[in-house]
Amino acid sequence: MHPWIADRTTTFDSSGIRKVFDLAAKLKDPVNLSIGQPDFDVPDPIKNAAIEAITSGKNAYSPTQGIEPLRQALRQQIEQTYPGQDRDVFISSGTSGGLMLAMMAMINPGDEVIFLDPYFVMYPALLQMCGGVPIRINSYPDFRLDAAKIEAAITPKTKMILVNSPANPTGVTATPAELEAVAKLAKKHNIALVSDEIYSQFFYDGDFASPATYNDQTIVIDGFSKSHAMTGWRVGYVHGPSEIMRTMLKIQQYSFVCSPQPAQWGAVRAMEVRLDEHIEHYRQKRDFIYESLCDLYEIAKPNGAFYVFPKVPSDGAQTMTATQFVEKAIERGLLIIPGNIFSRQDTHFRISFAASDEQLKRGVEILRSLALS
Ligand SMILES: Cc1ncc(COP(=O)(O)O)c(C=O)c1O
Fold first, then answer.
1. What's the CATH number for 58-270?
2. Which intervals hold domain Aminotransferase class I/classII large (predicted)?
3. Has residue 22 got a pLDDT over 90?
């Protein structure tokens, strides 16, 4: 290792996902079901609002906490959703930026952070950069948020519970009762509860629920990346108890500085853009992919986000690892992600159905033939 490299960078690596993308780079016209972003483009009114911001000179730093019109619009939404709660809100540099600040603001070296396995790739990396210790709760095979399992993992060192519903990589959503149980558990033990709600708009059966409804100290992190296809714009937001928000902002001031100002003006407009049609398309894609594969693959039916996380089928004698399975899929021109990127086990794989119907059809054909071969 190069002598200049800091120890904190060695606690995690990103070679697994790089390997998949290296293999994929060799493919001509692959069926790409690996991408974690919507297949629609940023709606025009949002683009126009950002262009207008640029041409009218709104190009400087914004206040650290974000532009007031965006905070005001979010405040209104938050007050409606959580009446009577005292929540402060600020704009972060994407949801990832909000997650990073949450860890930096709350995690001391040695603090334990509980989250479900499988998990979003960034969670262990971010918290280990702060010296935190990941406590992964095995949630196979149904990926439910089980408060009893979480309670059993609590120790005097537990500092935070991190929940993500709808979840990446499974698409599974927690029920209000499950969220309430975890919210109350965090309250009872005085543990920070962080809720990553980046997929809150992608909810297919029933309504979205947040643990913040049941625990007013919950730190909620959300953003515009997925909902409005603005992944490159870097606009997220965080709301929660004011002292925690102030501390996160202090770190933002000396790190990210602010979310890009023109993108924030785009986000103001985004708050008025209805997404019903896109969500309806994604519901149809979810139904198509689930119904086309569930006779051959064990799948927990996703109710949100745009992922499914099937198990690698067993051929009786020996089961392939997900990494081996994905290599076979890539040989046939299909790009998917092996489960060990998101998990300590390598038994499942992630399909993103944020793709055209044509790509999904081709992907299903390859997956069906792989299961039958
Ligand atoms: C669960 C989860 N949280 C956060 C993010 C990061 O979102 P952003 O682009 O807003 O940083 C992602 C992106 O894939 C995600 O899947």
1. 3.40.640.10
2. 29-366
3. no
The neighbour count for residue 162, using CB atoms within 10 Å, is: 25
- Is 236 touching ligand 1 by the criterion CB < 6 Å? yes
Place of tokens 């109350």: 184
Query: Among the atoms of ligand 1, which is closest to the Cα of residue 120?
Result: 1
| Interval between CA 96 and ligand 1 midpoint (Å) | 6
For residues 356 and 298, what is the distance between their CA atoms, to the nearest angstrom?
24
**pLDDT (tens digit per residue) in 65-116:** 999 999 999 999 999 999 999 899 999 999 999 999 999 999 999 999 999 9
Question: How many other C-beta atoms can be found within 10 angstroms of the C-beta atom of residue 213?
Answer: 15
Query: What is the reported pLDDT for 317?
Result: 63
The pTM assigned to this predicted structure is 0.96
Task: Give the amino acid at 278.
Answer: H
313 CB-near residues (< 8 Å, 6+ apart): 296, 297, 298, 319, 371
pLDDT score at 373: 80
Q: Which of these, 362, 350, 305, 353, lies nearest to 326 by C-alpha position? A: 350
Q: Residues 295-319: what's their mean pLDDT?
A: 91
Q: How long a stretch of residues is the chain?
A: 373
Ligand 1: residue whose CA is nearest its atom 7: 95
Structure tokens at 100: 């990073």
pLDDT tens, position by position, 330-346: 999 999 999 999 999 99
Taking the C-alpha atoms of residue 107 and residue 127, their distance in angstroms, rounded to an integer, is 7
- pLDDT of 81: 96
Q: Quote the CA–CA distance of 83 and 66 in Å, as a whole number.
A: 23
Calpha distance 182→81 (Å, rounded): 19
Query: In CATH, what number does 7-42+275-372 get?
Result: 3.90.1150.10
**Gyration radius of the chain over CA positions:** 21
Q: Do domains 7-42+275-372 and 58-270 have the same CATH topology?
A: no
Q: What is the distance in A from the centroid of ligand 1 to the CA of 334?
A: 23
- Domain residue ranges of the chain, discontinuous segments joined by +: 7-42+275-372, 58-270
Q: Which atom of ligand 1 is nearest to the CA of 93?
A: 11
